[in-house]
Amino acid sequence: MTALIVCHFVLAAFARPLVRALGRRAFVVLALPPAAATVWAATQWNTAASGSAVTWTWRWMPAYDVTVALRFDALAELMVLLAAGIGTLVLLYCASYFTDGTPQLAGFAGNLLAFAGAMLALVLADDLISLYVFWELTTVFSFLLIGYDSEQKHSRRSALQALTVTTLGGLAMLVGFLIIGQSAGTYRISAILADPPRAGLAVSVAVVLILCGALSKSAIWPFSLWLPNAMAAPTPVSAYLHAAAMVKAGVYLVARLAPGFADVPVWRPVVIVLGAATMLLGGWRALRLNDLKLVLAYGTVSQLGFLTLLAGTGNRDTALAAAVMILGHALFKAPLFLVTGIVDHAAGTRDLRRLSGVGRALPHVCTVAVLAAASMAALPPLLGFAAKEAAFDALLHGSTADRWALGITVAGSALTVAYTLRFVWGAFCRKPGAEDTPVHRVGWAFLAPPALLAVCGLVLGPGVGWTDRLFGAYADAFPPSAHPYHLALWHGFGTALLLSAVATAGGVLLFTGRTTVTRLSRRIAWPTADSVFGHLLLGLERFSLQLTGFVQRGSLSVYLATTLLVMLAGQLTVLGVDRPWRGAVAPRVWDVPLQGAVALLTCAAALCCLTVRRRMKAVVLAGLTGYGAALLFVVQGGPDLALTQFCVETVSMIVFVLVLRRMPVHFQESVSTWRRAVRIPVALAAAATLGVVVWVASAARTGAPAGAAMVEEVSHHGLKDVVATILVDLRSWDTMGESAVLAAAAVGVTSLIYLHRRTEGSSLREEVRGRTAWSLTAPGMTGLPHGDEGAPERGWLAAGSTLAPEHRSIVFEVVARLLFHPVLVLSVYLLFCAENMPGGGFVAGLVAGLALITRYLAGGRFELAEAAPLQPGLFTGLGLFLSTGVALLGLADGTVLHAWTHHGRLPLIGEYHIGTPVLFDFGVYLLVLGVVLDIVRALGAKIDRQIERAAAEQAAAAGTPAPPRPAPGTEGTPG
């Protein structure tokens, strides 16, 4: 099972080269994984039909009893055959539907196959958490597939709408899963259904939340708005996602959980009422539409309501009817969507008012459509008839609520017959007064997938008894009925057959009076759910704009004061109510007097920040507070923390200085006396409150400190540096997450500056000949030498020719060039010595970044480009890849981030050992180096470009030509 799922995702990753090499024929290759899954599921038919199950388990998070568990039983057999079998045919259909020149075909192909893999994993999942993961994967891939034509506004809006509705439902469902898992003591679905938690308030709330997710996925009212708009997707997507796969996920979840939760008081009212309402509303709406795909879309909404009602009723016979109806619906709705795509492809339109005589021009296509439509209308001897008979009989012999639901389903079935006739008439019949629509030929490969599905519906009508054993194995999970129903095409004359005849006759009458029905439907139509959704979004946007305009006043000090006041109110309330300081050990002022002296100087620097008017002074004073904190770490005996703090503070100050070049020298905001009088008490109160909170939290410890145990664990492995070991081994999950956040933050910051491109481009060498930010001479300065006259006799910098003489410092250039390589060596030393001495990948990356920053400060952006010719993203991505790869390597021993150590001996060096934590730390080193380099290029080199552009515009406006610059590499050449 796992191999089949993995194959889907692996081959989807290679979709782009396959499409590039094979064109649309790549879909044939991509159809192999779902075809293999179909064959495998067919070989397991007897196992599933006998009531047995094939299981596979991997303990993902043992401490939380979270496992990746797969289970293949009778219901999974049905869903796998649908998801994989129809997925195979849809992929083969795509080979004829698209052309080699179709844009974005590779991405579409990969997303479609990945969706099939996610759907396969979803129906096999036997764990609530893993089910949710695959559930959301189908949501993401459906978003990408619906928004395939991203240049069209309607496609983007439809994709976003589907994503919004299904994701919100999925989040509610996740909360319900967590409640159920905690109540049952396990997240294993089979175990929960074998011993469901006792019904109570918590379980009832969880059931409602889970149903929100299931109903939103299956487009049940009031969540049905997204599915008709999703018809903006290509027809293969509609046939697969919206007939056989994605929308069936919600019905599947209801069917899966019904044996354990159908008796919860809130279950049946929600499922039956909303399912019945959806069946009526969807069918009624389909009667007045003219787009063939929309007729099928609202028909799908109606049928999904019917399926949800059957699956959630909660007795054996309705469960049996639900299973066969799920199969029948997929076998008639998927080919109808595929036929619609063929008609659209051949005639160039889906508007039934413009189509006429297509049945005569495409008789084979018409035959396939009529077969599938007859099954949808529940006409004998097709599978749809047998499924509808089973449903009517099950509801007829059910409870009072079931018989009420029966009346609604009969009315809904009449609507189904009516819109089925409307579809066939609109797509293939001749219209009075309309000319025949010109069409082109349709190849056999194009027609074969829908034809095969329609023939299956025809064969399985008389042969529906073949499925009784499989579907009965699922239905037997419910309490047995007195007279169990068995699937067959003919059960004799009875009430169920009479109701089927009534529904068929009613549908024919509705179609016959279609003009009057359409007029009445439009006259009494409510506002569409789509328009309601649009107005809600518009109102939410307007409200957010007004709220933002009221709150966001453009003053950082106001934002900070608001944050501090909210924090103060909350903390003081808690402190005043709980009074947690009672019984707490009194805090010590200091351990050694030196701590008090450093703290006093740090506080003095912080208070001085309140009085300065120049931005540069404020940056320096703020930096001093950081260095003061680092000194406190030194005094306290934390060299790792101190080294990290020193490096971070140094890089931060340099970044501040680079930004200040584009900002006014003085603070622009004028602060009145009364505002200053308010701000100072707020700041002091916040600091005092946080101090008390830290003291109370420290004094509240009841367990023994973990420090001694960590020291013992680290020494047991022959290491000495506890902090570094914590970061790369004991708490490496945190480090990996923080590294990803750091990379994302750097990308976000630099993207605000690089609006168009993130590279220096190929014109770097040519730009050296022109003006640069570091070669601009101050106005009014004359008599200064240019070029070689003021340059040192030896070029210490690779980009020295770009520097104006008055901007050069020969001492700084020499020091920068001489220290560059030793500092890089120091960074590597700090990386590899972290096991036994202060250091680590984070600090080492910062030190290496400082070496590059020094080169930039000495010679500008061209010097930085010479020192680091590779793009920062390469370092960042390679670091993330290396850290993640080391983490996944631990799976070889069953646990992510499991540490491995190799011991060996080398000539001249002797004994050595290397562990995966060092490789993990090396990934952190590369990531931090890439982040620092990216920020320096964005806030340094990019701002240099802006300065150069402004100078060029100023020079052009003044009419003064730029002074010539010598060619690169000629500085320092003796004259």
Tally of helical runs: 39
**Mean pLDDT across every amino acid position:** 82
Alpha-carbon Rg, integer: 35 Å
Main β sheet profile: 2 strands, antiparallel
Number of strands: 4
Give the strand order, joined by hyphens, for the main sheet: 1-2
**Global morphology:** elongated
Give helix % range. Answer: 55-70%
Task: Give the N-terminus to C-terminus distance in angstroms.
Answer: 77 Å
- The SS-based structural class is mainly alpha
Low-confidence stretches: 756-770, 777-793, 964-975
Q: Per DSSP, what share of the residues sits in E-state strands of 2 or more residues? A: under 5%
What would you note in describing this structure?
The chain has 975 residues and is mostly helical. 68% of the residues lie in helices and 3% in strands. It has 39 helices and 4 strands. It has a two-stranded antiparallel sheet with strand order 1-2. A two-stranded antiparallel sheet has the order 3-4. α6 packs antiparallel against α22, α15 packs parallel to α21 (400-428) and α21 (400-428) crosses α24. The N and C termini lie far apart (77 Å). The model is unreliable at 756-770, 777-793 and 964-975 (pLDDT under 50).
